[in-house]
Amino acid sequence: PEAYQAFVTLATTDPYCMGSLVVGKCLRRHGTTRKLVAMVSPNISTEARLSLEDVFDEVIVVDMLDSRDRAHLFWLGRPDLGITFTKLHCWTLTQYTKCVFLDADTLVLCNVDELFDREELSAAPDPGWPDCFNSGVFVFRPSLETHSRLLEHAKMCGSFDGGDQGLLNTFFSDWAIKDINKHLPFIYNLSANAIYTYLPAFHKYGHQAKIVHFLGRYKPWHIPNKQQPPTDAPQWDTNRNLDKYVDQWWAEYYGHTKMHAD
Ligand code: UDP
Ligand code: MN
C-alpha cells in the first residue's frame, strides 16, 4: 500500500513553487518512502516546473479554466473560491489510496511517514479557533465521490473564511468532537504565530516540532535576508525562534543537506 500513498502540495505562483520545492526537498531528505506529488497551475514558469520535477515523482498541472475540468462550472459561479477549488483537486488523485496534504508554506523537520496511519480527515487544531482544524496539513483519501460532494458543498454553502479551511471545516463538521484519533498533535502543524502567542509552551514543547507552518502574510521566501525583515512584520526581527526556522527553510531551498542540530 505504501506505493499508493503520497504527500501532496500545491502552488499556483512561482513564489509558492519555491515553497513546494522546499516541502519536497525536506520530505526526501528525511527519507520518506511515499510518493511526492506537486499540483501546479498552468501559469507557473518553465523553470519553476522543472525544478519541481527534479524532486517530485509527479508534477500535475491543474487547470481551473479547462472545460473538461469537473470543477469548471462550479468555479464560474464562485470565482472567489478559485485557489480553494484548486486545492480540492487533491481528492481527484485516485491513483493513490491515501495522501497527506502539505501547504507550500510548511517545513518538514523529520520523517513524518507515520501520518499515513491516520484516517481521513485528520488534521491539527487551528491556533486561532481550536475547534476548527487548520487545513495546512491534513490526511485524506482521494475519491471522485468526495470531490463532487465537496464541490457541491462549496456551491451551496461557500466558505465562511473565503478559503479552503472554512469549506473543509463545514464539510468535515464533526472533526472537533467525533474521533480524537483525527486530531493530529499540534507539533505536526506548528503555526509560526504560536511561537509568539504562547512562548512558554513553545519553550517547553517546541523542540518536538515535526512540521512548522509559516501561516499568515509573510512567508520565508519574502525574507531572503533575515537581517532585513520587512519593516511592517515586527515578529521577524524580534523572534529568534522563528528566525531559526526561516534559516532552515533557506538551507533546504539551497539544497544543503546538513542537519542543523541547534
Ligand atoms: N496557494 C497557492 N497560491 C496562492 C495562495 C495559496 O498555491 O496564491 C496554496 C499554497 O499551497 C498555500 C496554500 O494554498 O500554502 C494555502 O495558502 P497559504 O499558505 O498562503 O495560507 P495560510 O496558511 O497562510 O492561511
Ligand atoms: Mn499555509
What does this structure look like?
By secondary structure, the protein is an alpha/beta fold. It has two domains: 2-186, Spore Coat Polysaccharide Biosynthesis Protein SpsA, Chain A, CATH 3.90.550; 187-253, no CATH class. The chain is built from ten helices and nine strands. The strands form two sheets. It has a six-stranded mixed beta sheet, sandwiched between helices. A three-stranded mixed beta sheet has the order 5-9-8. Helix 1 (14-29) runs parallel beside helix 2 (46-55) and helix 1 (14-29) crosses helix 10 (240-253). It is globular, with a radius of gyration of 18 Å. Manganese (II) ion (MN) binds at residues 103, 105, 136, 213, 215. Residues 9-13, 16, 83, 87, 103-105, 136, 215-216 line the site of uridine-5'-diphosphate.
Label this structure with key terms.
6-stranded mixed beta sheet, 262 residues, 9 strands, binds manganese (II) ion, globular, alpha/beta, 3-stranded mixed beta sheet, Spore Coat Polysaccharide Biosynthesis Protein SpsA, Chain A, binds uridine-5'-diphosphate, 2 domains, 10 helices, disordered C terminus
